Amino acid sequence: MGEPTDDDLVARAKTGDKDAFSELYDRHFNWVRNYLRTRGINPDDAVELVQEVFLRAWETLPRFREGQKFGAWLAGITKNIIGTYWRQHYQWQNALPKLAEEFISAPILLQSLEENIDERVILEQIFAQLTSTQKDVLRLRIIEERSTEETAIALYGVDNEANRQKVYSNLYRALMAASQIAKDFLSQDKYPFSDTRKR
Nearest Cα to 139, choosing from 93, 178, 185? Predict the structure, then answer.
């Protein structure tokens, strides 16, 4: 017996056959991911969006009409996902410079700390859990107090609008992650505060 066609798999999937839909997923995953990448979406986001495309496809499969080509139908879903992604991305990016600069001007790394806790203990916890990119951008922008332009050059080799946006984005994420790590550390009460009091 030959390999089932997309039409065969779709027909089975519409009856609730998840194995058939999994086969469609395996068959079409690479071209959907590559299509997303050709539209300028970074690799990590592209993989996440592939999952969203196929989730949307599974949810709307009952509306798939006989005679349609599954690949063309999937392409339509993918284009809609891409449109939503870029609308959200541009709205987010436009807000990042202001947000990042506001965080720099506020002691967010220490705002959740009690006065009797040694900040070094918290900072050690923070830096142990941040990504290398987050560590670099915090070091350059906050510890070394370099400008956004200088940080863009240090991290990416060139100061341009795209790289400054990367600095804003990574700084914002780093600061948010640092704040959450500090709060989690305090709430877990894992370390005896008597050993971390300021001297």
Answer: 178
